[in-house]
Amino acid sequence: MKKWVWLTGGLIVCAGFVIGIVFWKFQKEVKKDDPEYIVQFMKENKGNKNVSVAIQYNRQSWVEQHTKEPLPLASTVKIIVAIAYAQQAADGHINPQQQVRLRELETFYIPKTDGGAHEAWLAQLNLNGKESVPLSEVAKGMITYSSNANTDYLMHVLGLQTINEVLTQLDVKGHEPLYPIASALYIPIQLRDEKSLTKKETLAALKDMGMAEYRERALTIHENWLEKPLTKEEKAQAIKMLNLDVQRVWSDRLIRASTSDYISILEKLNSKNYFTEDVQKYLDPVMEHLMQNPRNQEWLTHAGQKGGSTAFVLTLAAYAEDKEGNQTEIAFFANDLNTMEQIKLSSSMNSFQLKFLTDEKFRMRLQRELSM
């Protein structure tokens, strides 16, 4: 059966037999992999500017909903960092085989803030006592496992100015500049300590802060950590500050772009003729982890994707070409989600992509129903 990998987080299992049975039924229903849920969600949110969708099939626009609306990208923005990595590797500015000490990555890691992504990446490396990994593995961990620590480390190595120049090269004028994602999580603590604020006052100050100052603070924290990394105690304090209200501010201030921007990027990735062969040589192993699955190799020529999520956001940018030469690009951004929507969208996105790629009747119905 045709299948491509889609990584989603799990729910905590309740203790107790009766509660366990009820929760099992609830979990089974909520986490059901149902492509029709995505279709229904798009139909119900056609007038909602917090839901932006752009889908192309063989360069024809298939679905368009609020494609110019800038929305928080969450981890989908890491595609830009991956492109910068591949370009610098091709130009010889960085060495993909350079060893990176895991301790250096720990500098940018705040536990319990990435859904277990960084730990999952480390677990599959089979380190066997090794204390370092090649830079290429750091880049793969950023995309495949969505490690925020790896992302901020790569921002340090590649340089934020150079990374943001990629936006100009790609001609995505509506894309906000990148800034350190993990470092921004420490802004509430910095603000609290700097001004001796209560939690409530810290939240109010965060909401009032302009984006220019917010980005500047994230960058300053990022640079300070390079000189003086946080202790375990300081990281624990940071985690305590990140209640749902504070998380919401962090989520709302994540880098924004539109699905129109990302469809244009996905076209370039899918064409295989926009980037040079040297760049593509380093980019494909990072972006196209889906092709490691032998079942995908049977029917796809190439495919890549990057999703992102917070408690309120779910995003996806995916591209694929099948063995018959059909090309698909999907950009799906949703913000201001409730918990149920977030879980159900995450659970159903894989089957929706698969259905769109393989079922012509589904594609035609989707186009017809969403154009009404």
List keywords for this structure.
single chain, 372 residues, alpha+beta, 2 domains, five-stranded antiparallel sheet, 19 helices, 9 strands, 13% strand, globular, disordered N terminus, Beta-lactam_cat, Beta-lactam/transpept-like, carboxypeptidase, membrane
The span between the termini is 33 Å
Main structural class: alpha+beta
List the total number of helices.
19
> Nearest-angstrom radius of gyration?
21 Å
Q: Helical percent range?
A: 40-55%
Report the sheet with the most strands, covering strand number, pairing sense and barrel closure: 5 strands, antiparallel
| DSSP E strands, number | 9
| Structural domains: how many | 2
Strand order of the largest sheet: 2-1-9-8-7
Q: Please mark out the parts with pLDDT under 50 across 5 or more consecutive residues, or reply none.
A: 1-26
| SSE arrangement, N to C | HHEEEHEHHEHHHHHHHHHEHHHEEEHH
Task: Please state roughly what percent of the residues sit in beta strands, choosing from under 5%, 5-15%, 15-25%, 25-35%, 35-45% or over 45%.
Answer: 5-15%
> Mean of the pLDDT scores?
91
Backbone shape: globular
What does this structure look like?
One of its GO terms (molecular function) is carboxypeptidase activity. This protein has helices spanning 17-30, 35-44, 78-91, 102-106, 117-124, 135-144, 148-158, 160-170, 181-184, 187-195, 199-208, 211-227, 232-241, 244-252, 259-271, 277-287, 294-299, 339-358, 360-370; strands at 51-57, 60-65, 71-72, 99-101, 132-134, 256-257, 300-309, 314-322, 327-334. The chain is of the alpha+beta class and 372 residues long. The chain folds into two domains: 17-73 and 256-370, no CATH class; 94-252, no CATH class. The strands form three sheets. Strands 2-1-9-8-7 form a five-stranded antiparallel β-sheet, sandwiched between helices. Strands 3-6 form a two-stranded antiparallel sheet. A two-stranded antiparallel sheet has the order 4-5. A hairpin with a 4-residue loop joins strand 7 and strand 8. The protein is globular, with a radius of gyration of 21 Å. Mean pLDDT is 91; it is low at 1-26.
